[in-house]
């Protein structure tokens, strides 16, 4: 028995299921039934009985999935767990012979799923202790043990590869909102920088004096975030910036149309959070990347209510078409702090 388990934003199960199936098929995994009940915030993909977690997790990677917050391989499905002792059946289902760097007991990030959080928390300690006592905890192990309760009486149990999965429980990076920030949007930017860059890269690529263009900048959260780190920002928006954004020095506010603005010279970062049809944003990004006007970019594509996956693919193709023959990297993720949107990250030739 084997299933791939992917967590996603509630309401995006269809998109998550579609891309998980596509990538699994593309990687040559023999796949069976795929399930993702609307609003459940997770998807399960049945694998051929002969497919091991080594094969499935080598074939499909959390980073390459846009709509999945987390990805791991379930080796057991437990139903009818007794109220009085859920632990014993879980322990019996542990994959034999493996050692783990840790255990996460999780639940769906849905309305119903969040009610399971106390149960998950209560079981995490005893499970961890069992691994310690059984000498199955090893900080150097590449594997993490996952237990995922989808009801109070049923759970999936299996393994995740540390290097090929999200490093946060539930696949959610929890961030603190600084009291002085002008808008909650900064959480989106900060999450994007954590998802798309490693710690060293964040230090190297976000240095004082670097240049940024922020299209659709008002009220100024992203501009504020960059300026606070000493980067020099041109904030393009007809709307007003919050008074907490520095009025001079590192920030220049241009009341202009973001679709018409072009920088005089190449900037280190292009940011774009304009609320517009995704294909228009994709065209705008394609034009910037093609001209080589920015080294890197973080941008949002607001998705329509219907045919979201198709629209997203159309936008991706549009950007890629303008970059044929170039060396670049283009990645997308629906972030925890994203709503009906996905965030893109582009790096071009330097
Ligand atoms: C979601 S808000 C941006 C929030 C911003 N990232 C922050 O951190 O505060 C979208 C912004 O896009 C701006 N906008 C919409 N159309 C625009 C355009 N054609 N050019 C520039 N800005 C535009 C709106 O005025 C609005 O302020």
Question: What are the defining features of this structure?
Answer:
350 residues, alpha/beta, VC0802-like, Rossmann fold, 2 domains, 7-stranded mixed β-sheet, binds S-adenosylmethionine
Task: Describe the structure in your own words.
- The protein has 350 residues and is an alpha/beta fold.
- It folds into 2 domains: 3-171, VC0802-like; 185-347, Vaccinia Virus protein VP39 (Rossmann fold, 3-Layer(aba) Sandwich).
- The protein has 10 helices and 14 strands.
- Strand 13 (329-333) and strand 14 (341-347) form a beta hairpin.
- The radius of gyration is 22 Å and the shape is elongated.
- The N and C termini lie far apart (47 Å).
- The model has no long low-confidence stretch (mean pLDDT 96).
- It binds S-adenosylmethionine (SAM).
- The site of S-adenosylmethionine has 21 residues, from helix 8.
């Amino acid at each position: 028995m084997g299933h791939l388990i992917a967590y996603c934003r509630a309401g995006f199960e269809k998109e998550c299921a579609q891309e998980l199936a596509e990538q699994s098929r593309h990687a040559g995994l023999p796949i069976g039934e795929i399930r993702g009940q609307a609003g459940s915030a997770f998807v399960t993909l049945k694998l051929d009985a002969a497919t091991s977690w080594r094969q499935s997790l080598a074939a499909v990677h959390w980073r390459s999935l846009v709509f999945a917050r987390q990805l791991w391989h379930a080796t057991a499905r437990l139903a009818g767990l007794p109220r009085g002792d859920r632990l014993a059946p879980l322990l019996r289902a542990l994959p034999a012979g493996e050692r783990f760097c840790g255990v996460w007991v999780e639940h769906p990030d849905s309305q119903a799923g969040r009610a399971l959080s106390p149960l998950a928390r209560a079981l995490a300690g005893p499970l961890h202790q069992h691994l310690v006592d059984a000498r199955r905890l090893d900080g150097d192990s590449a594997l993490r043990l996952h237990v995922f309760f989808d009801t109070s009486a049923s759970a999936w149990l299996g393994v995740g590869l540390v290097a090929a999965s999200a490093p946060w429980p539930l696949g959610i990076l929890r961030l603190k909102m600084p009291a002085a920030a002008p808008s909650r949007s900064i959480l989106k930017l900060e999450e994007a920088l954590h998802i798309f860059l490693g710690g060293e890269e964040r230090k190297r690529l976000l240095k004082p004096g670097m240049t940024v263009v922020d299209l659709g900048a008002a009220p100024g959260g992203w501009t504020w975030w960059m300026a606070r780190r000493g980067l020099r920002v041109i904030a393009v928006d007809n709307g007003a910036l919050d008074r907490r954004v520095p009025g001079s020095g590192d920030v220049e506010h241009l009341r202009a149309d973001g679709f018409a603005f072009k920088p005089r010279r190449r900037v280190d970062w292009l940011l774009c959070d304009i609320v517009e049809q995704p294909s228009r944003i994709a065209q705008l990004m394609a034009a910037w990347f093609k001209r080589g006007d920015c080294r890197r970019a973080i941008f949002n594509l607001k998705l329509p209510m219907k045919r979201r996956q198709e629209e997203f693919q159309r936008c991706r193709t549009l950007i890629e078409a303008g970059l044929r023959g170039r060396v670049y990297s283009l990645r997308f993720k629906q972030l925890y702090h994203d709503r009906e949107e996905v965030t893109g990250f582009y790096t071009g030739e330097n």
